[in-house]
Amino acid sequence: MSTVVSTVVLAAPAAESRPSDPNRLVRFAVRADADPGTLPRVLELFAKRGLVPLSLNGRLLGDELTVEVEVSGMVAAESNHVGNCLRQIPMVLAVTVTERTVPADLPAAAE
Asked: From the CB of residue 98, how many other CB atoms can be counted at a distance below 10 Å?
């Protein structure tokens, strides 16, 4: 009878390969049904890309939830894709994506 021994080798994480534009600030405004699963589903789209929002605001107004997320560094193709993914969440009613350029000498969070 032979014994098989498995060895797991851990490698260093891959370097960031996501394209970014540090001077681009994107704001996502989401209007959705008031549902406990809405906010985690919205935030998941940013978390799985390794993005931490500069600001996050959620407000319950009657039976609707409004969520605003502001992120820096996303290129246009990525923010368009995230906007489209947000629109696919079943409880989402509307999504608006706006962008602006932040001068290189000003930190995005200071605006």
From this structure: 11
- Helices (H) and strands (E) counted in the chain, each on its own, are 2, 4
Tracing tokens 């549902």 back to the chain, one arrives at 35
Q: What CATH class has 21-102?
A: alpha beta
pLDDT at residue 95 tops 90:
yes
CA distance 62 to 93: 14
Domain boundaries, the chain: 21-102
- What is the rounded CA–CA span in Å between residue 59 and residue 77? 28
Tokens for 93, please give them.
């009613």
Give CA–CA dist 40/63, Å, rounded: 17
Q: Which two tokens stand for residue 99?
A: 């962008």
pLDDT digits (tens, 9 = 90+) for 26-72: 999 999 999 999 999 999 999 999 999 999 999 999 999 999 999 99
Question: What's this model's pTM, rounded to 2 decimal places?
Answer: 0.77
